[in-house]
């Protein structure tokens, strides 16, 4: 059946019976698009399941198979996939097998941070499109190696810095960098207040050696956003932080947890922009905020998930442009079905971008070098907390023979 221009909403399809009310042959408005691409997921813990969900929800691609050494993660992948498709999910017995399957177009890597560099080396050898979760690596050296692999890669190599696709940040980026509503940005403030790190398979996220430390593991998202708003390279990072509340009693097979649960980070950029980031991971909600001050305006955007009755996700963007242009306060959002698919809808739009990029052959969105710089700021912040000193980025990169990047 050829299709017209009617609105085809996933939300309507869910509410009014996408699956059951009419036979497949009779479907028109709620007919599923035939997927153009097949993806395999490597690592099907929390984030791997989210990628299965958004791939199926978005609809232009499907999940073909998965590889994960943990049997519970495989079972969870099968259950998640079965919510969307009656097809059988292929279960591979190695990364190599998952990557060499000729029926597959792309590989989504959702393994723990410390495994990324080894997994990428293996996956890249097969040459398929890659979507690699953040942080790209736990060290500056590994992040640089991955950026090098991506630079020479013939297929799409996309990094999972999907906070850029959260509604508030998409709008803030548009205002600040495309419309230039604020004039020249001078200061950037970012806040994350949230619940503690969740349980993970093997509890890798409680140890800096496996996660890169809190300021790399979680905060690479915010450092990427701050770097992007600054449009410049970081020159100095100073941070103070501690483990004040979380996981003080935690002990697992690798011993006691050594990660931070709060920090204040100050970043100075080459172009004179100053930024600060504040993290608290012992809040009964998830609150994110950015405040940008330019020489022609002020922008504040925030998103709050407080788990109270009513709409779970609340968001706002305020733009004050003084007396020369309109100011406004709005609530950027996506349809509920998309917001609820994970990370306020950001993963869905990251995935949509991955599919677009495969179609066009041009990798639009945050680059592997952007991911590298987000790791640089995270590592510098972790080192600053440990040493109690300002970290000069030139010195840090010089120690790793990477001073040519400045
Ligand atoms: N973009 C985001 O907002 C976001 C959110 C959460 C997690 N992440 C990232 O996603 C990745 C996975 O995190 P998670 O929360 O799903 O962790 P998780 O512990 O829930 O799942 C990781 C899975 O990978 C599997 N695994 C471990 N080593 C593997 C290997 N060598 N090959 C294949 N599978 C392997 C584990 O068995 C587990 O099932 C991490 O890099 C994390 O930082 C990103």
Rg from alpha-carbon coordinates: 22 Å
Fraction of residues in β-strands: 15-25%
Count helical runs.
14
Associated small molecules: nicotinamide-adenine-dinucleotide
* Category by helix and strand content: alpha/beta
Briefly say what this structure is.
This protein has 14 helices and 17 strands. It is α/β, with parallel strands linked by helices and 406 residues long.
Describe, in plain words, how this protein is organized in 3D:
The chain has 406 residues and is of the alpha/beta class. The mean pLDDT is 95. It contains 14 helices and 17 strands. The strands form three sheets. Strands 16-15-14-13-7-12-11-8-17 form a nine-stranded mixed β-sheet. Strands 3-2-1-4-5-6 form a six-stranded parallel β-sheet, sandwiched between helices. It has a two-stranded antiparallel ribbon with strand order 9-10. The chain starts with 9 loop residues before the first helix and ends in a 7-residue tail after the last helix. Helix 2 crosses helix 12 and helix 10 (220-230) packs across helix 13 (368-387). The protein folds into two domains: 10-161, Rossmann fold (3-Layer(aba) Sandwich), CATH 3.40.50; 164-405, Dihydrodipicolinate Reductase, domain 2 (2-Layer Sandwich). A hairpin with a 7-residue loop joins strand 14 and strand 15. The site of nicotinamide-adenine-dinucleotide has 27 residues, from helix 2. Nicotinamide-adenine-dinucleotide binds at residues 42-48, 67-70, 73, 95, 110-113, 115, 119, 133-134, 160, 162, 200-201, 217, 343.
